[in-house]
Amino acid sequence: MNDCIFCKIIKGEIPSTKIYENEDVYAFLDIAPINIGHTLVIPKKHFVNIYETPEDIMLSMMKATKTISKAIKSELNADGINITMNNDLAAGQIIFHSHIHIIPRTTDDGFSLWHGKRPYHEGESKEVASKIIQAL
Ligand code: 5GP
Ligand code: ZN
What we know:
With 136 residues, the protein is of the alpha+beta class. Helices cover 29% and strands 18% of the residues. It contains three helices and five strands, in the order αβββαββα. A hairpin with a 3-residue loop joins β1 (18-21) and β2 (25-29).
C-alpha cells in the first residue's frame, strides 16, 4: 500500500520508536499516547483490519502483545493494561493497517471506558447468540 502510514513506518520511510520486531510483526510507540508507553503492534504485511488479517499473523501479533505487555507492566509500573483493536471507522479505526493497541493504565489516570452499557432485554441474549453462532 503506497499511501499507508504504517507500511511507510515498516519500510523506514517514516521514523518510529521501535519496541520490538520479528518476522511477522513490528511494534512501536504510538505518536500520541493515551498514557506514556502506549505501543502499537502491527503486521509487517499490509492488512486492513482483523477480518483481513490471517489467523497465524493475528497469533503472532497477540504473542508480541503479551511479551510487550509484561515488559510495560514491570518497567513502567503500570497498574493495568488495556489491549484494544479498532476495526472500521465506527469503532474508531483511523489508520487502516491492522494494529493492536497496548495501553498502560494507572489507577489515577482518570480515563474510563464504555459508557452506556445496558442489560439484555428478555430473550435478546439467546437471539443474538444464535445469530453469531450460526455464522461461525
Ligand atoms: P486507530 O484509531 O486507527 O486504532 O489508531 C491509530 C493510532 O496510530 C493512533 O493512536 C495514532 O496516534 C497512531 N498514529 C497515527 N499516525 C502515526 C505515526 O505516524 N506514527 C506513530 N508512531 N503513530 C501514529
Ligand atoms: Zn499498510
